[in-house]
């Protein structure tokens, strides 16, 4: 494990002050009511001793008489029980993909990180998708902890490779970043197994934030998301891709070698580009459809782009949807 | 298609390998670590066939592009070097042989050939730097203008002045002269055109003999050949006229006979025919006529024709002239030969003289028998015998003799053999027999070595079977025994042999043997000695395997002895002496006694003599020493038709393929042209231009193909990722 100064340095590497400054004004809200042990800004499905009134219902024998609305009884002579929307805190589970394919990046690290460093984690010269995912996860953990909500972390490839238990203490941010910065990127992905392992460790309802390139069969992804949905959790899916993976800007005949142990392939990019983009587009659409079909949010993230605008836009859209749902 | 710069074209074509090499070199690039392999693999799986096809098309178009550029810079020309843009060099190889005397459509073929040559010259332009050369084919071939001259009118005048020869065509020699003339190491020498003009009838061409190579002379060479004459004709020619008696002695023999050989060619040789031959000796005032008969399929025949010798005071050295009736080729209808008329023949008998007088036949020595055979009756004065001994032989004595009969070669000192060799080389006849004693023969090696004979003579005599006789069935046709051939069976039947010293091996055994024995061994052998330089001596050496001694054979006492010795000497002298008869084109050496030749107009004739006829020989002092008869080379007048199909491989082999061969006129071959078109100038750059245009088109296609392969790539103009 890295020592504290190096961790701090790594953290600052990913959480550029500009990124955090742009996100500070937003509150991260869950679209769905999640269960929490702390009273907070998030609505709880358990109406009880909460402070925010929800509705009345007729009294039934056995009801707690302390919840009778005496004012209504005085006016209407009917016994009505007051129901309150319980305010809870948000349990955020960050799931960051550290499989081999996340080690790909085409932009120079110094240009993407915004700090002028020439090398990032794992001594790579390029700003990898994992670098980007790490930055996003750290940013979201930071914001969530400053809201007073609990945050946990799961890193995964073909199984869970690292984990930080959920905690609301602001100091949790440090082990999260530390865990993120010490992962190796060399294994294939197994979403089914990882989701099952993660869900087994989560007892209350959570907001899962999945940050991955999702280079997996869409059906497998769909199956994994279905299990999250089945357990009543909410999820946000950030699909992180490098710009060259989206544009495929190679020109000269090139030998490509897979980062997850796939065989080499020599192709002329000029000839294969159309086909590649078509396959990629089909894949992205399939992932997005699968995500939205469960009511989850989906966002395609380009690893070369600045973190701030992407996260800010996403949080703003999400909050707007939550408020709209409340008003309705 | 060929190239004016084949080296450049070849070098450029080798660059076709460049795209392929680059294609393989690129495979060695460092691989790119790639995350989204699943999509790449899927895309590749979907597009693999199309991509392979595109890549192949791209590679093919690139290779073709390089190839077209290579061809363009090689300056291609179609149909060999038929089109030229620079100065032209034309060598006319004109057939002036006896074949060109054929009557082609009313005119002598030679005149047509000359007109065709002049027409070719007219297509040349001295102002453009064109040059012309002229080589004549009549054997031996000779150059008239070589190397090529820019004075085209002079070449034309030379052609107009030409006369036909009576010699056979020398194709090989003519093209050798041309090849030596156009051989160059100059890098940018203009292409040479060799125009062969002749009728190409059977007498002129021999496809079995390869022509000299003309395609490796340092410059582009093209052969333009006049199409063979197609008119079927027949021709009869006199091959030779030979008097039966090769030497005529004195005035005694007034009537003679000559063997006239006749040859026919062309159409009709499958049918029987006869031709009338007229023979006359000049000065005799008498002519004789005989019919030569051809059997069906027979192409040569002979007939014996009598003649009358003119008186010596009218014609000391008479000639015989045989004549045929006019036919398709009149150049071979007359043939002349010289008659060797001598006042006396001097025969030296070389043998040691016995110390005591001869009494009785059993004491007769071989010299006695030979002397008796040479002068059986009273001495006529025309055949004189000179007795000498082996030790007395010297050059002055030999110089007075026409023939030498050496009966005791073992007694001859080794230093005297070269004297005999010189005697033979001057045209003398040498008759050698083994010595009468039966000791080991040590002289044979000295003789064969000194005389340059390829014989191996046994060292010891052996005794043949008692029934060994002369085999009259297998005697050859040297002409030495022609006059006694009819009686030879009868004369030879009784001759027996007790001892023989045979020739064990001879290189030309079959040709040399005059008479054989029934056991197959040669009894009489004759050969012209050969010199170290390969030339054949005019003199003749005759070896008899049996000594004319009764201890060896009873021949001296038999009736055959006298005619045999007489014929051996008289015919041998005639055959051994340097006869003053030559064949046109092959008369490159004068008889030894002549130092100058004058033609019928009294003008000195140059060697080799190519025109048939009667020439007067002069010695160094300017005195007349006889007549030289030159007869036409009838082999060159064979008038059968050749086809372009037969001749094309022959010519094409000389110029490296049919691309560099064109036929002038004619209808048989597709690769024909006419005289003006043969040398027509054409812009060779046109072909190169079109090749460049096509190459440019392929460059565009290649670009489009390359862009099509990556058509959306250029729209985004993205930089290559630095992975």
Question: Key features?
Answer:
heterodimer, A: 328 residues, alpha/beta, Rossmann fold, 2 domains, 3-stranded antiparallel beta sheet, 11 helices, 13 strands, elongated, disordered N terminus, B: 723 residues, Immunoglobulin-like, 4 domains, 8-stranded mixed beta sheet, 7-stranded mixed beta sheet, 17 helices, 27% helix
Structure description:
The complex is a heterodimer of chains A (328) and B (723). Chain A is of the alpha/beta class and 328 residues long. Helix content of chain A is 41%, strand content 22%. Chain A has two domains: 4-32 and 90-313, von Willebrand factor, type A domain (Rossmann fold), CATH 3.40.50; 42-88, no CATH class. In chain A, the strands form four sheets. Chain A has a six-stranded mixed beta sheet, sandwiched between helices. The longest helix of chain A is centred in the last third of the chain and has 25 residues, at 269-293. Chain A starts with a helix and ends with a helix. By secondary structure, chain B is an alpha/beta fold. In chain B, 27% of the residues lie in helices and 25% in strands. In chain B, the strands form nine sheets. An eight-stranded mixed beta sheet of chain B has the order 21-20-22-23-29-28-27-25, with helices on both faces. In chain B, a hairpin with a 4-residue loop joins strand 27 (513-517) and strand 28. The two termini of chain B are 51 Å apart. Chain A binds chain B through residues 100-104, 106, 108, 126, 129, 213, 215, 241-242, 244-245, 247, 249-260, 262, 264-280, 283, and chain B through 26-27, 29-44, 46-47, 50-51, 54-55, 706, 709-713, 716, 718-723.
């Amino acid at each position: 494990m890295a020592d504290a100064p190096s961790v701090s340095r790594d953290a600052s590497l990913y959480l550029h002050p500009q990124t955090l400054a742009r996100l500070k004004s937003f509150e991260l809200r869950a679209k769905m009511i999640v269960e929490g042990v702390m009273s907070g800004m998030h609505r709880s499905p358990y109406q009880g001793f909460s402070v925010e009134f929800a509705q009345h219902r007729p009294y039934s024998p056995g009801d707690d008489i302390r919840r009778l609305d005496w004012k209504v009884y005085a006016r209407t002579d009917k016994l009505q029980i007051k129901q309150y929307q319980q305010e809870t805190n948000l349990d955020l589970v960050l799931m960051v993909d550290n499989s081999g394919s996340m080690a790909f990046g085409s932009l120079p690290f110094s240009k993407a990180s915004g700090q002028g460093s020439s090398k990032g984690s794992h001594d790579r010269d390029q700003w990898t998708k994992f670098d980007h995912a790490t930055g996003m996860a750290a940013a979201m953990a930071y914001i969530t902890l400053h809201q007073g909500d609990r945050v946990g972390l799961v890193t995964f490839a073909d199984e869970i490779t690292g984990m930080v238990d959920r905690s609301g203490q602001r100091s949790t941010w440090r082990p999260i970043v530390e865990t993120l910065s010490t992962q190796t990127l060399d294994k294939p992905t197994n979403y089914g197994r990882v989701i099952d392992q993660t869900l087994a460790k989560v007892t209350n309802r959570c907001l899962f934030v999945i940050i991955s390139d999702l280079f997996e069969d869409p059906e497998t992804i769909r199956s994994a998301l279905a299990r999250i949905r089945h357990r009543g959790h909410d999820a946000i899916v950030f699909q992180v891709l490098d710009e060259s993976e989206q544009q495929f800007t190679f020109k000269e005949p090139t030998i490509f070698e897979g980062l997850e142990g796939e065989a080499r392939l020599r192709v002329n990019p000029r000839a294969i580009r159309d086909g590649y983009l078509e396959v990629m587009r089909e894949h992205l659409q399939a992932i997005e459809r699968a995500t939205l079909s469960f009511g989850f949010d989906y966002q395609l993230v380009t690893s070369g782009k600045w973190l701030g605008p992407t996260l800010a836009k996403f949080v703003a859209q999400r909050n707007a949807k939550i408020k709209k749902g409340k008003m309705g | 298609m060929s190239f004016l710069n084949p080296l450049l074209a070849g070098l450029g074509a080798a660059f076709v390998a460049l795209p392929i090499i680059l294609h393989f070199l690129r495979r060695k690039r460092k691989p790119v670590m790639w995350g989204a392999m699943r999509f790449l693999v899927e895309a590749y799986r979907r597009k693999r066939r199309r991509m392979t096809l595109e890549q192949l098309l791209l590679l093919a178009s690139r290779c073709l592009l390089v190839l077209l550029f290579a061809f363009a810079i090689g300056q291609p020309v179609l149909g060999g070097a038929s089109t030229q843009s620079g100065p032209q060099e034309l060598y006319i190889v004109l057939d002036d042989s006896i074949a060109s005397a054929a009557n082609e459509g009313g005119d002598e073929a030679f005149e047509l050939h000359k007109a065709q040559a002049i027409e070719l010259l007219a297509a040349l332009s001295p102002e453009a730097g064109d040059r012309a050369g002229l080589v004549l084919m009549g054997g031996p071939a000779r150059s008239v203008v070589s190397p090529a001259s820019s004075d085209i009118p002079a070449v034309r005048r030379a052609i107009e002045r030409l006369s036909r020869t009576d010699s056979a065509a020398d194709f090989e020699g003519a093209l050798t002269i041309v090849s030596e003339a156009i051989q160059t190491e100059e890098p940018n020498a203009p292409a040479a055109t060799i125009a062969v003009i002749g009728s190409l009838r059977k007498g002129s061409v021999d496809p079995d003999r390869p022509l000299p190579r003309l395609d490796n002379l340092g410059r582009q060479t093209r052969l333009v050949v006049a199409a063979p004459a197609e008119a079927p004709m027949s021709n009869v020619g006199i091959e030779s006229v030979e008097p039966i008696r090769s030497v005529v002695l004195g005035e005694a023999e007034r009537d003679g006979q000559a063997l006239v050989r006749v040859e026919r060619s062309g159409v009709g040789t499958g049918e029987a025919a006869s031709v009338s031959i007229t023979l006359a000796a000049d000065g005799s005032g008498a002519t004789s006529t005989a019919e030569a008969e051809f059997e069906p399929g027979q192409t040569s025949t002979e007939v014996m024709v009598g003649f009358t010798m003119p008186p010596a005071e009218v014609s000391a050295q008479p000639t015989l002239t045989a004549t045929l009736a006019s036919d398709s080729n009149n150049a071979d209808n007359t043939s002349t030969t010289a008659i060797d008329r001598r006042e006396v023949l001097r025969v030296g008998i070389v043998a040691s003289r016995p110390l005591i007088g001869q009494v009785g036949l059993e004491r007769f020595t071989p010299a006695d028998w030979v002397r008796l055979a040479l002068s059986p009756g009273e001495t006529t004065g025309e055949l004189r015998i000179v007795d000498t001994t082996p030790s007395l032989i010297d050059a002055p004595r030999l110089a007075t003799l026409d023939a030498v009969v050496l009966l005791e070669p073992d007694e001859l000192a080794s230093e005297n053999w070269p004297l005999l060799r010189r005697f033979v080389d001057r045209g003398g006849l040498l008759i050698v027999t083994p010595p009468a004693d039966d000791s080991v023969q040590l002289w044979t090696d000295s003789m064969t070595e000194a005389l340059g004979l390829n014989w191996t003579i046994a060292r010891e005599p052996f005794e043949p079977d008692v029934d060994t006789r002369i085999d009259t069935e297998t005697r050859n046709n040297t002409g030495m025994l022609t006059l006694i051939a009819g009686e030879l069976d009868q004369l030879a039947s009784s001759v027996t042999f007790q001892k023989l010293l045979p020739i064990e091996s001879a290189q030309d055994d079959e040709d040399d043997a005059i008479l054989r024995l029934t056991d197959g061994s040669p009894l009489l052998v004759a050969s012209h000695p050969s010199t170290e330089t390969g030339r054949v001596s005019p003199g003749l050496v005759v070896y008899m395997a049996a000594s004319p001694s009764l201890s060896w054979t009873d021949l001296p006492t038999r009736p055959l002895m006298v005619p045999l010795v007489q014929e051996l000497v008289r015919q041998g002298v005639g055959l051994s002496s340097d006869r003053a008869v030559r064949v046109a084109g092959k008369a490159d050496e004068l008889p030894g006694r002549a130092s100058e030749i004058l033609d019928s107009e009294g003008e000195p004739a140059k060697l080799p003599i190519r025109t048939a006829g009667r020439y007067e020989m002069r010695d160094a002092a300017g005195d007349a020493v006889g007549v030289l008869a030159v007869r036409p080379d009838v082999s060159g007048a064979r008038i059968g038709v050749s086809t372009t199909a037969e001749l094309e491989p022959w010519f094409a082999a000389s110029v490296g393929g049919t691309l560099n061969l064109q036929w002038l006129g004619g209808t048989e071959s597709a690769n024909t042209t006419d005289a003006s078109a043969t040398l027509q100038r054409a812009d060779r750059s046109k072909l190169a231009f079109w090749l460049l245009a096509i190459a440019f088109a392929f460059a565009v296609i290649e670009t489009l193909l390359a862009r099509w392969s990556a058509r959306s790539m250029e729209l985004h103009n993205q930089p290559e990722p630095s992975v």
